[in-house]
Automatic annotation (TrEMBL):
Residues 259-286 form a coiled coil. PROSITE patterns: HSP70_1, HSP70_3. Residues 386-408, 550-613 are annotated as: Disordered. GO terms for molecular function: ATP binding; ATP-dependent protein folding chaperone. This is Uncharacterized protein. Residues 568-582 have a biased composition (Polar residues). It comes from Spirodela intermedia.
Amino acid sequence: MRSSSGKGRAGALRIVCEKVVGIDLGTTNSAVAAMEGGSQRLSRTPRGSNGDRLVGQIAKRQAVVNPANTFFSVKRFIGRKMAEVDEESKQVSYTVVRDDNGNVKLDCPAIGKQFAAEEISAQVLRKLVDDASKFLNDKVTKAVVTVPAYFNDSQRTATKDAGRIAGLDVLRIINEPTAASLAYGFEKKNNEPFSYLTWGWYFRPVLFISYFFAVLEVGDGVFEVLSTSGDTHLGGDDFDKRIVDWLAATFKRDEGIDLLKDKQALQRLTETAEKAKMELSSLTQANISLPFITAAAEGPKHIETTLTRAKFEELCSDLLDRLKKPVNNALKDAKISFNDLDEVILVGGSTRIPAVQDLVKKLTGKDPNVTVNLTKFAPGRVPIITGPGDTGRGDDQDHSRNTTLPTSKSEVFSTAADGQTSVEINVLQGEREFVRDNKSLGSFRVPQIEVKFDIDANGILSVAAIDKGTGKKQDITITGASTLPSDEVERMVSEAERFAAEDKERRDAIDTKNQADSVVYQTEKQLKELGDKVPSDVREKVEEKLQRLREALSSDGGSTSDIKDAMSSLNQEVMQLGQSLYGQPGSGAATAAGPEPADGGADTIDADFTDSK
């Protein structure tokens, strides 16, 4: 923190410096990054006995043996009603249920509890931020979080709720294409204007591509999103599912067993499909080996087969065709042609599929750029459409798609008939012409009024209505019918804080035990190597303290503080051992004789950090 003042100022200006991280809360993988000294430092999804909350790779590795309690692709359910996710709920190994309000809950039989998708996402966010705090050596409480550009108001609000449950102040919710575009723009060495299409995510007119498309224009540090478009039901998981279905259908044809009904087998098929898809990005064929995938009366069954790139492209041909329409729509809305694009940028793992890159080149006539790092973030803009329903006919569009945010617009509405005492304001989101075809975000009733719509930079909508006769005002913040009630969010926040405290205590206990185990091992090793060189009185004291530490470690009721005390006592005796041998109290040689420090022993289960330059 620093302060400064100057002439003519009423008082000192205090500037508080605090690290803000960017978080990509992905469907399959997540990452966190921060800017330091102009370069980005980042960590990817972290890795942690019964009842423990494991996040990242370590959770993924045990999914095969614990499919009902391993949650993935949770972003598909956040902020949505059960009626909206019928198909998605069939594609996961855990059980998705409906609560009394029609919202989505994820069942966890291991602890007999049902979680909201926001709670699971909050666990990921908390772990990412904890690891970032450790890596940056600074407490992190603020973040910018990316969401798909197609996320509606309910899903955006639910994402902010997840951040709040995780103890985070979410400063901004930004679109993934915008984030990728900013990352790309920041890497440019000059300020010359450019446009680009992102297939998935990009600028200039640049086209960004990742199964969601954005056209952006960049120049003089200004990033303008000209248009966005996409297929809300198309992503990398859909390509994986085609391989899963092919493997399951082939096995059922040959063996008469439906693997899709076996949750453990389905989890193994899903992991293998993702791996095969990735291999086919660089190889022409992938060997698939799944021993003991299931068992029949005659014995165990295995899968041994080969998937060629040509067969994979055949399985996914209709998915590739679905990519064409959003690209054309993005350019049409931006009012530019492929010839106007300076660059086409691909972002996201599944855009590495050769068939996708070939399709991009065929559509645009340009070789796509695949160099953008998805873990780079910055604030951006988002599109949304709102309007009050008007007596059942087409609605008045106050904010059309691709409107730059934040934005505000007002309009005066009259009653439909003389003597009518009130007007019902129904706020809708969507791009269809008629009210019934769009999603209702909320409604309220007032007399003849002026309606004002405000959409903040997070894409969250507020609506105010003013009675033109009396000046009386009524307003609401649209939170979406499927977001969590405020009291439930508060309960989840308190519960998450309690879990965080428990996790910290458990981690401290694990760290201490790991360090103590190492001290015991190093001390025993030294006593053995030094043999008769150690004076008998010194050896006796060391062995006494060593035995005390062993007992503290083996005791079921032993506390972390007991282990720390015993370890400290042993370390002091080991220092005396070094001094008696070398006769150099406090010297480096004496220190070297002590056991090697074992700090961070539990870090073996933490995320691996990479310094991205």
